[in-house]
Amino acid sequence: MAFRPELNHYSLIVNHFRVLLNRRNIDKLDGTLLTDQEFQRFLNEIVGSKSIYQLGRYLRGDDQFQGGRAQIQRDDGSDITLSFFDPRDAENNIYEVAHQVVVNDKYENRYDVTLLINGLPLVQIELKRHSVEMSQAFQQILRYRRESFNVGGSLFRYLVDCKN
């Protein structure tokens, strides 16, 4: 697992996710990286206005759907299925930790520790001193959820909350 202190803003997380997505699918892309429009279509496909159930299905898959993959249409009209997560073999994923990630929307929030898998933020850990009530960390995460986890097509909609 790599520590990635430079990934300290949501826009950097999104760009990093795009780099890893392109790298993970380089053979399928035939050397032509995703354009801005294609990447936006991909984000809309995996996040968009999906329910929590649908987001979980994209990661895990089920009997009818292979998780960790999404199909989009390329700018030339061809369809492509891209892999962004391997739910069956943990060794096929890249694990990283980001610290103090800032998300600016209506409010500015700063997430203490974020676990990224293939650049996708999946776990947010809120650290508190021993003298601080656990309920304060819980309330802070609830506020983050209202203010920035669920904003538009945010990758942070995939987050699982952890408190320490």
Give the structure's gist in a few sentences.
This protein has four helices and nine strands. It is an alpha/beta fold and 164 residues long. The strands form three sheets. Strands 1-6-7-8-9 form a five-stranded mixed beta sheet. The protein has a two-stranded antiparallel sheet with strand order 2-3. Strands 4-5 form a two-stranded antiparallel sheet.
Can you walk me through this structure?
The chain is α/β, with parallel strands linked by helices and 164 residues long. Helices cover 31% and strands 29% of the residues. The chain contains four helices and nine strands. The protein has helices spanning 10-24, 36-46, 52-60, 134-149; strands at residues 2-3, 61-62, 65-66, 69-73, 79-83, 95-104, 108-117, 120-126, 160-163. It is elongated. It starts with a strand and ends with a strand.
Q: What are the SSEs and their pairings?
A:
Layout: E1 2-3, H1 10-24, H2 36-46, H3 52-60, E2 61-62, E3 65-66, E4 69-73, E5 79-83, E6 95-104, E7 108-117, E8 120-126, H4 134-149, E9 160-163
Parallel strand pairs: 1-6, 8-9
Antiparallel strand pairs: 2-3, 4-5, 6-7, 7-8
Number of helices, where a helix is a run of at least 4 consecutive DSSP H or I residues: 4
The largest sheet, given as strand count, sense and whether it forms a barrel, is: 5 strands, mixed
Kindly state the number of beta strands.
9
Average pLDDT works out at 86
The best one-word shape is: elongated
Low-confidence stretches: none
**What string gives the helices and strands in order?**
EHHHEEEEEEEHE
What separation lies between the terminal Cα atoms? 20 Å
**Helical content class:** 25-40%
Rg (C-alpha, Å): 16 Å
Oligomer: single chain
Strand order of the largest sheet: 1-6-7-8-9
Which class best fits the helix and strand makeup?
alpha/beta
The percent range for strand residues is 25-35%
